[in-house]
């Protein structure tokens, strides 16, 4: 065994060797958090873990309805001015009081361009302090999904951040560190007590939390375990209580284990491919002086040569839904008639490539994570083989998501895989983040493919401010159809997520793949 493999195995062994106490949940999944800075990275695992400690003005209930959190009430003074009454008596984990100053500070911080969380305050021009526990949100225009966005507008302590020289958001893509990227001070149900990257995150229940949980968990040990066999072995041996990344090939086996139970449900996450469509010349390609991905025919050829059904059957073991659009069932804007992938047609794909000037195909680097999505590297390997049939030679470069994400955020890719969970359960979140032309604000803040389509931009900007639900849903449909017809990205599939746990653990399966220990009980 190579040295790095021995070190990784030793790290997992160390993490799992921590003793279990009463009402402790040892939770494992395949990838680590990226940072502890709550405004730095819009990354699902990071947000899931940090949501135990940091809170927004609103939050999602067990049934995905918006309910009060750090705000107890909101009143629309006008369509563009909303008054929020803040919860009194709330304290941060360091004992300092939560006030309106923290909300104003957090708004200024989350908007800083080096972070990728600005989508959650999109459309807000200003947060104005009225008194110590009242703020007004001044909007650029009416915002139909304002309350849903605010659930992930995590509030930081102004005093703590300034004291610890963390008033600025960590620039993750530049490999910057600050105090807030390694330490946590929220108001939430759990205190983060430590993080050893690629080994574990530890949390303990916050006895001073303003609310009461529906569960009884006192301690959480989160362990990232990249290796599929090691993750499953840890659950079977009893070293792990809850596993939220089950290898597809092991689901049936785990269902048959009497000491375990498996919960399954759809996830509002779509896996897709992003092409650099906007650069004058494509990086890491055999084509010089131009960009093949700028040609719609090339994008269509790549799209129609992927056999999603074969991927679903052979790699995902049925735990995926072949995708034709960028959002999954359960997201507002999704319709079954739109969500139909193209039929596999190798000959038609070859013809399109020839018409575009690539009769013999071309070479390109294909970047892929190997520890983030279900069977991510295996799916990428299958796509490489499928593209080879039309002459496109994709050179696969697979790596850990922590370094992988730094590369694509620095526009250092030609073609890469991404998964996008729709935190707001509304398609605008995906369209605005991923497809809208990139600006200095929330628009296009995760558009690292240099996509710029005026039709989508116009529809996106209109839907952001359209209060009429019917009219707005028409705009969403038109935008999703345009993205599909132009092949601006290549949707692969929507994930189905089984979780496995010991029989003494009860938790709420959530379609945002966001387990929360306030919904968890250990007997």
UniProtKB/TrEMBL annotation:
It comes from the Bacteria. InterPro entries: Peptide/Ni-bd, SBP_5, SBP_5_dom. SUPFAM superfamilies: Periplasmic binding protein-like II (SSF53850). GO terms for biological process: peptide transport. This is ABC transporter substrate-binding protein. Residues 65-434 form the Solute-binding protein family domain. Residues 1-22 form the signal peptide. The keyword Transport applies. Belongs to the bacterial solute-binding protein 5 family. It holds the Pfam family SBP_bac_5. GO terms for molecular function: peptide transmembrane transporter activity. The keyword Flavoprotein does not apply. It comes from Rubrivivax rivuli. Keywords: Signal, Transport. GO terms for cellular component: ATP-binding cassette (ABC) transporter complex; outer membrane-bounded periplasmic space. The lineage of its organism: Bacteria, Pseudomonadati, Pseudomonadota, Betaproteobacteria, Burkholderiales.
């Amino acid at each position: 065994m190579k040295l790095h493999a021995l070190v990784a195995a030793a790290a997992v062994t160390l993490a799992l060797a921590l003793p279990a106490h009463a009402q402790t949940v040892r939770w494992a999944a395949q990838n680590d958090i990226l940072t502890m800075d709550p405004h730095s990275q819009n990354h699902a695992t990071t947000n899931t873990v940090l949501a135990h400690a940091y809170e927004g003005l609103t939050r999602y209930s067990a049934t995905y309805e918006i309910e009060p959190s750090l705000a107890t009430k909101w009143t629309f003074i006008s369509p563009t001015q909303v008054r929020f009454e803040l919860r009194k008596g709330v304290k941060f984990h360091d004992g300092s009081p939560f006030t309106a100053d923290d909300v104003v500070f957090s708004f200024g911080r989350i908007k800083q361009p080096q972070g990728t969380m600005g989508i959650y305050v999109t459309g807000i021009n200003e947060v104005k302090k009225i008194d110590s526990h009242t703020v007004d949100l001044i909007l650029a225009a009416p915002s139909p999904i304002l309350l849903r966005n605010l659930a992930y507008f995590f509030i930081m302590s102004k005093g703590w951040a300034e004291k610890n020289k963390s008033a600025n958001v960590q620039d993750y893509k530049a490999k910057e560190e600050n105090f807030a990227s390694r330490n946590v001070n929220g108001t939430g149900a759990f205190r983060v007590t430590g993080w050893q990257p690629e080994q574990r995150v530890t949390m303990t229940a916050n006895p001073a939390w303003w609310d009461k949980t529906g569960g009884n968990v006192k301690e959480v040990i989160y362990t990232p375990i990249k290796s599929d066999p090691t993750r499953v072995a840890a659950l079977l041996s009893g070293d792990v209580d809850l596993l939220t990344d089950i290898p597809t090939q092991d689901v049936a086996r785990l269902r048959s284990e009497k000491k375990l139970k498996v919960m399954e449900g759809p996830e509002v996450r779509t896996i897709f491919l992003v092409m650099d469509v906007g650069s004058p010349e494509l990086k890491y390609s055999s084509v010089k002086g131009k960009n093949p991905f700028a040609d719609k025919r090339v994008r269509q050829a790549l799209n129609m040569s992927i056999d999603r059904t074969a991927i679903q059957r052979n790699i995902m073991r049925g735990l995926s839904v072949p995708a034709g659009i960028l959002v999954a069932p359960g997201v507002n804007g999704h319709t079954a008639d739109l969500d139909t992938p193209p039929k596999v047609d190798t000959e038609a794909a070859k013809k399109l490539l020839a018409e575009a000037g690539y009769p013999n195909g071309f070479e390109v680097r294909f970047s892929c994570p190997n520890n983030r999505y279900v069977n991510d590297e295996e799916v990428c390997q299958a796509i490489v083989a499928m593209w080879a049939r039309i002459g496109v030679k994709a050179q696969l470069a697979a790596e850990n998501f922590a370094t992988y994400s730094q590369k694509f955020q620095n526009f250092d890719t030609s073609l890469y895989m991404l998964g996008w969970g729709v935190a707001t359960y509304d398609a605008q979140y995906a369209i605005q983040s991923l497809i809208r032309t990139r600006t200095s604000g929330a628009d296009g803040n995760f558009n690292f493919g240099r996509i710029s389509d005026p039709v989508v931009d116009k529809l996106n900007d209109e839907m952001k401010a359209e209060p009429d639900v019917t009219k707005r849903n028409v705009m969403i449909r038109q935008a999703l159809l345009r993205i599909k017809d132009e092949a601006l990205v290549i949707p692969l599939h929507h994930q189905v997520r089984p979780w496995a746990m010991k029989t003494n653990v009860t938790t709420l399966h959530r379609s945002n793949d966001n387990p929360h220990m306030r919904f968890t009980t250990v007997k």
